[in-house]
Protein 1
Amino acid sequence: MSGHATRHWRNQKLSAIALVALGGWFLFSLLSLPDPGYASVRAWLSAPSQSVLMLLSGWCALWHSAQGVQVVVEDYVYGAMHGRVRTLSRFAHLAAAVAVAWSVWTIALGGAA
Amino acid sequence: MQAPAPAKAPPAPQIRPDRPLSPHLQVYRLALTTVMSGLHRITGLVLTLATPLLVAWLVAVACGADAYAAAGAFFGSWPMRIVLAGLIGVFWYHLFNGLRHLAWDAGYGFDIRAARASGAAVALLTVAAFAATLFLTPAWRWLWGAP
């Protein structure tokens, strides 16, 4: 895919800026828990505001990761493998994003407990 | 009628063993800025490889107490404790050096003195944040405590 370099560059900056805040939030929130046990984590991530932040953090991290992998693949993977590796990376990141959404949704609704 | 835009992608670069490749790493003196630039990519890829851990943890929370206990046994194993501790340092490095990249993208800090100074600042901040996270938060207790 060509002609999207500027948009890719700008989106990578956007996801980076968002991740400074969201990554900091995640680490700070996790380490503020009394313990890393199931009840504590579940109570933390069940609050609606925390669900939204967890979803945004997960998606932003995966988006930024996909963008970064694309840049590395563009630099180092040539020929027929280039397209394959890029497609594989996209699908893997997309699958992870779906898993994050399902998890956050399930935790927020209090199911599977 | 307009001519259609060229649809063909540019040809993939050919590796020709009879010519030196550029940039030719061996001819450069290794500088702090060079090492830090490489480390930014390496830490970024390490964080990418760590995202399945985050996703697995989140899925385990969603799946319930039994699944979370199984995940806890995995994350609480000694190799994983060391990996998680290392990831904290990798996270801070990539975050601080990422801020440095954002400053460059905004047009600041391009001259060599500024680049060296910001590089040293990132190194110091990484060590400080890594140590603070490990020793001033429950991370120490979680990572080194009883399973």
Protein 2
Amino acid sequence: MAQVSIRKVVKEYEGGVQAVKGIDLEIADHEFVVLVGPSGCGKSTTLRMVAGLEEISGGEIWIGGDVVNDVPPRDRDIAMVFQNYALYPHMSVFENMAFGLKLRKFPKDEIKRRVDEAAKMLDIAMLLDRKPKALSGGQRQRVAMGRAIVRNPKVFLFDEPLSNLDAKLRVQMRTEIKKVHQLVPTTTVYVTHDQVEAMTLADRVVVMNHGVIEQVGPPQELYHNPKTRFVAGFIGSPAMNFLPVRVVNEGGLAVQLANGVRLAVPPQRVDRYAPFTGKEMTLGLRPEHLTEIKDQEKPNVVRFDATVDVLEPMGMETMVHFFIDGQPVCARIDPNTPAAPREILPLAADMNNMHLIENDSGKVV
Amino acid sequence: MRGEGVKNTAIQLLLAVNALVMLFPIALMVLSAFKSNAEIFDSPFTLPETLDFSNLLHVWSDTEFVQYLLNSLVITTSAVLLILLAGTLAAYALARYTFPLNASLYLFFLAGLMVPLKLAVIPLFVELDTIGLLDTRLGLVLIYVAMGLPSGVFIMTGFLRNLPGELEEAARIEGASEGRILAQIMVPLARPALVIVAIQNAVPIWNDFFFPLVFITTDARKTLPQGLTVFMGEYSTDWGVLFAGLMLAALPITLVYILLSKQFIAGMTQGAVK
């Protein structure tokens, strides 16, 4: 058990390309932190630097109170689960799980006890004699996790462990991983490009982009209070709608769309947005805040008509795609709302949940 | 569908003819090993009249055959083992580590593929003479190792490069040293490639006539192909005995090939199917 500190860490490749540009991150003991971001954002590189598989070009990484920059991976007391599981194909499941313990000269009965215990927890006790070849994807994933658990390391590292599984199994294994972390609360750093995985698993989510950390926070905070346009667009599915607007103050502060339609800013936000009067900004509104007209409307809800382009019934809800000023927009409506493609659908925009984004800096104000 | 069937039959037929052409001399050798000289000339293509083991016994007990066999075994085995050892170590370094001159070193090994060693027989002779290894089995082994390394390194490097890097990283995180990763993770996985290199070298070394002829003069150190020439007389040759010797000489390497053929084919077709 240990905390992990990443301080001003830089990864620079030959030719001066920086994959990670001086990031800072404090991970508490027992914490489950998920690094998420698009491919090439530096999340895997960061994880590999923590693991010691990648040299650190600048800054320091601490594990449990020691700087580990020059400590080889085997002495960092970490365990890693890889995307392709990296099980040794010529060894049985038992041998795979026991390999690390044997290398560390654990007594035989202790190895057996630990492997049996982990196998029981992961429900793979009946597979111990099999070779990885004879296992399904989900079982291999469990073995890979078992191999990490038996060592009882200070830190677990997961590198996109669910990416090779089919959609159904991925959801199932996601729950398993969460359950395992509840049973064995080891400090965990988990890398994924899937924001749903990040939201569901993490105590705190770290959103990375272009080698820098955009925002760190609990899933709900990232969802409701994104600090940048990138985080706003990355977290949440379907993604947040973005529309170019101008902040105007003619008879009350409002944002004006390119087609002239004005959406009043809720009174509690007026002070916050007033300094931006006259500026070109971007309005961010999540699909669930664009809904059908409800009988009892909350204050600060603006009604408007949309011409439906595509309908996506999901069962529990229906996604409506349409255009405002040529910009694609998605709304989330009740599946019982009568709607048809190319027809006019009255919608309501809940401005209480609006986000206003500076165009130059990409910051949410 | 029908065209496909015709094509398949044609291929099968071609393969069958090829197999016949290949097997015919071997069958002839085996048959003749059990015949007397007179019978070989009278009816060369028939089955032997009686199952006569006298040729085999004669080869085994009245000639230096056993000594030649031992020499061939020792030389081939040690040369192949050394090629596998040195080749794997070199290939592992070339395939899995980045260091300056990596590519140049790899090309240096590959360059060896282009040099027919037989062209260098005179310098080799001088060299072996200088270090006092002329007319020794060790000298011969060293030449074979030098001959086999380029292709060995080439095959092993290609194979090791394709093994997933995560296996190595996983082992490294779990606490394995570089040597252990090589011995316990990489080498077991590289077995198909090792078999290819072993067979691809063992057969020509076992069969080699040229280098022993040039470098070995003492009868007790001769290899089988060289030793068997003793059976060819200047005026008369006992063909039955010669064929019996040839059969016995071909037997070990044939057995090795049969035993390892499954792995050999597995290695050759690696990557062809998932």
